[in-house]
Amino acid sequence: MKLPGAVEFRGPRAVVTAAAVLVAVALPLAACGSSGTSSSSSAASPVAGGSPQSSSAGAMGSGPVNVLYAGSLVDLMQSQIGPGLKKASGYDVEGFAAGSNALATQIKGKVHQGDVFISANPKVNTTLQGAKNGNWVSWYATYSSSPVVIGFDPKSKFAKELRTKPWYDVVTEPGFRLGRTDPVNDPKGKLAKQALTSQAKKTPALSKLASSDAGIYPEETLIGRLQSGQLDAGFFYNSEAVAAKIPTVPLTGQALKAVYTVTVLNRAPHPSAAIAFVKYLLGPKGAADLKKDGYNLVAPPKATGSGMPAVLKSVISGS
């Protein structure tokens, strides 16, 4: 079972679900190394809080690491982190992208068996903590953030107005096509609705947009829809707009942002690969990729919770 519109990539080829086929051309999927089917080369117990055995210094691993990540990270994961991890450690990223809340629901429902979970909102981790939630998460590290902006199609007939007028005066014009994500399944969608609702107190015309389901699409397809001319503008995180080379204007009057966290899920089937992934993401090479795409780094990353593997202390503080 897959969440409608979610994007999955395994090794050198990406698999896009039916809802994303229309935008496949606009969202090219980068290679992430050859697909691995063998288990991690260094065995480890997947017991919660356990630390996998470390490979000898300089040793390369093999096999997959299953990463469930926020849909706003598609370009970063497929174009940079996946290939970089393969080159540095030998592990193949097998990624699945969707809204953070939707991913948490699927983890609890055992729809996807992941090694690593990356969310765009720290609060989502709490829905996976404790016995009643399956004890999937014991700790997480906050490592970066990115503000919400309005990204727009430079070929749109409204592009000039967006550059010269407040966003809230332009998006309410007749014929304007504004895209956003589902506030139930995705933190960005919730922030977009918050922005519309808050600004509607001063700009009543936004009330209809805030209460409508029109213009809501899966997070993984929103960039493609904009780039293919299906939308005039949409709510994006600045980092994903930078990576996709989408022009933006500030969300004037609002101060909303994504806050990204990463954790190794308890009972991860490939714990050694998961540790290698987190070390790469939060290490110098991963940080360089994040900076390149406009993320605001939390330096050093800060851990919340207990049971973080000791081997990660070199890249995470607050444990």
Per CATH, the superfamily of the largest domain is: Periplasmic binding protein-like II
Distance between the termini: 36 Å
Domain count: the total is 2
Radius of gyration: 20 Å
Task: Give the CA-based shape.
Answer: globular
The major beta sheet can be summarized as: 11 strands, mixed
Q: Residue share in helices?
A: 25-40%
Q: What is the total tally of β strands?
A: 11
Describe it for me?
- By secondary structure, the protein is α+β, with helices and mostly antiparallel strands.
- It has 11 helices and 11 strands.
- α1 links the parallel β3 (64-70) and β4 (92-98).
- The longest helix is centred in the N-terminal third of the chain and has 16 residues, at 74-89.
- This is Extracellular solute-binding protein.
- It holds the Pfam family SBP_bac_11.
- Belongs to the bacterial solute-binding protein 1 family. WtpA subfamily.
- Residues 36-56 are annotated as: Disordered.
